[in-house]
Design brief:
Structural class of chain B: mainly alpha
Oligomer: heterodimer
Shape of chain B: elongated
Largest sheet of chain A: none
Distance between the termini of chain B: 55 Å
CATH class of chain B: Mainly Alpha
Number of strands of chain A: 0
Number of domains of chain B: 1
Distance between the termini of chain A: 65 Å
CATH topology of chain B: Helix Hairpins
Shape of chain A: globular
Number of helices of chain A: 6
Order of helices and strands of chain A: HHHHHH
Strand content of chain A: under 5%
Radius of gyration of chain A: 20 Å
Strand content of chain B: under 5%
Largest sheet of chain B: none
Chain lengths: ~160, ~100
């Protein structure tokens, strides 16, 4: 019961923060709400006993991506004005359509029946991830590292000042 | 394990819908990127919930989530670099003004 109460609190917090991130008029506030949503999701990962992902979520999403977004907002000044976070004229239709999408998906999840496993998470789950990355998933692992290098070089090339 | 799997799935559906609303309804490119990040988070919650409740003995679910995390980081870096580059030439990252490729 305590777990359920924690889950409900954390998910309400996460959803409120996510709503703030997409509705805030000030873009800087939106970025701060986004940090809150990331933090709530990381607590959910702890509840799911995926500790490695929870820590990685805090380091990568809050430590890197949110910081990057805040820097991009500050570098593109003038977008921080009160009209910065405006929504386009399709916003009410999008909200309505997505509300129905949510209802549909929630209904589908409600009627779906899954084969639950009663097994507990192995105590060496993190070691298992490490082993999987150098055996079964070595190719995706290498591809991901190449992707990161390409993204790094590409981002520098795109964002550098062209003075010629 | 007293939290039903369905709760996680419904939470991630709501998070995904909110993120998609941000992508569809925002005019600022950075705000659109914020929506994309929320959607990727919703996907990861879904993956990890299925991993925990259906195959907790197999690390594949977590490996998948880590790959999604990596791609999200690369996407954020390249996306923000693009926006800064666009801002430098157009002095605006309002996506309504970015219609140079419009036929």
């Amino acid at each position: 019961m305590a777990l359920q109460a924690i889950f409900l609190l954390v998910s309400a917090f996460t959803l409120l923060m996510a709503l703030g991130a997409v509705l805030a008029r000030n873009l800087f506030h939106a970025a701060l709400f986004l940090v809150g949503a990331f933090f709530g999701v990381s607590v959910l990962y702890f509840l799911l006993e995926a500790e490695f992902l929870a820590i990685a979520q805090i380091i990568i999403y809050i430590g890197a991506i949110a910081t990057l977004i805040v820097f991009a907002i500050m570098l593109s000044r003038g977008m921080m004005g009160p009209e910065a976070g405006q929504h386009n004229r399709y916003a009410p239709f999008a909200a309505l359509a997505l509300f129905f999408l949510f209802l549909l998906v929630a209904w589908l999840f409600n009627i779906a029946r899954f084969e639950y496993s009663e097994q507990a998470v192995a105590p060496d789950a993190i070691a298992q991830i490490g082993r999987a990355f150098v055996t079964t998933y070595v190719v995706p692992f290498e591809v991901a590292s190449i992707l990161l290098v390409v993204a790094l070089i590409g981002a520098i090339m795109l964002a550098r000042e062209r003075t010629s | 394990m007293t939290i039903p799997l369905t709760w996680y799935l419904i939470l991630s559906a709501a998070l995904f819908a909110i993120g998609l609303f941000g992508v569809l309804a925002r005019r600022n490119a950075i705000a659109i990127l914020i929506g994309v990040e929320l959607m990727l988070n919703a996907v990861n919650v879904n993956i990890l919930a299925f991993w925990r409740y259906i195959r907790p003995d197999d690390p594949s679910g977590q490996v998948f989530a880590i790959i999604v995390l990596t791609v999200a980081a690369a996407e954020a870096a390249v996306g923000l670099a693009l926006f800064i580059s666009i801002y430098r030439t157009r002095r605006s990252i309002n996506v309504d003004h970015l219609d140079a490729l419009k036929g």
